[in-house]
Amino acid sequence: MTVHDVTVHDRTEDDTRTGDTRPRNTAPPTEPPPRPRPSRSLPRALLSLVRPGQLPKNLLVVPLALLDAQTAPQGLAARTAWAVLLFTLASSLVYVLNDLSDRHRDRLHPDKRHRPIASGQVSVSAALALGTGLALLLTAAALYGPVTDWWPIAVYLALNLAYSRGLKHVPLLDVFIVAIGFALRVVQGHLAGGTAVRGWMLVSVFSLCLVFVLGKRRHEMTAGGVSHRPSLRGYSVPFLDHLIALCAGVTVITFLLNLEESVGAPHTDLAILGSAPFALFAMARYLQLLHVDGDGGEPTRILLRDRAMVVNFLLWALLLGGTLLAARY
């Protein structure tokens, strides 16, 4: 008789004496399976498909044109708001098309498998109907709205169509196309406001968006591997870290150069010297969240919800706002 048999025999005798004859489970306890996410109603699932949490990107980029408007021409606010609406419709259409194209790969990702189409909450036919409606609304808003020069939106849609059809699988080209989309938002905002685009500002926005897109790719690699996105096979974490550091430096330098052009004397030095700590802190904070906390999957959420970021941007806005007012008046 083994030690195990003796132990079982003793437990059986003890159970008989106490009147407990229920069978015992000697297998080790196991963790309960994770609960599936509750299914959403169709209207909520369709709303989630256009990713409303990503729409503030249009509000953060397009109004930059207002900073370069020395005077406020009639209809400036209306045209700028219409440009925001146009890019909101265009980006929503792109999200629907991308999720349709990526639905099979999204099912392999630990987070993206919960997206409406990949999870089955929105059927392919419903998504196509939503995309058709968005395309019709966008066409009507572009043809009959106050913004007549909307070629950046046409280029944006063409690039994203090519992106969905295969360019998203090409390493480096995939992140550059996404960043170009944000630069096109800036151009559209300036066209709507009737102002000239400053080269340094455009380069700064482009390189900043590259930082965020590369950070998102890094997060995807560390969280879900490379199986769900073929272009990730052309990257490695050290390579992405080098690219992020390069683009972060370009962003800060070109932003300060843009201030030198846009802020008039004698307040140029104040704007540059005052902005440098805020710009460097913002970039350092993002890199800290990306590398230390592993939180780089949703850059928009970081910019809007991280307390350190929000406080830094508010203080920075007060400094720049006061400097620009002093320079103009």
From TrEMBL:
Signal peptide: none annotated. GO terms for molecular function: transferase activity, transferring alkyl or aryl (other than methyl) groups. One of its GO terms (cellular component) is membrane. The chain crosses the membrane at residues 76-97, 118-144, 197-215, 235-258, 270-287, 308-327. It is a multi-pass membrane protein. It is found in: Membrane. Keywords: Membrane, Transferase, Transmembrane, Transmembrane helix. It comes from the Bacteria. Residues 1-23 have a biased composition (Basic and acidic residues). Its main location: membrane. Residues 1-41 are annotated as: Disordered. This is Prenyltransferase. It comes from Streptomyces paludis.
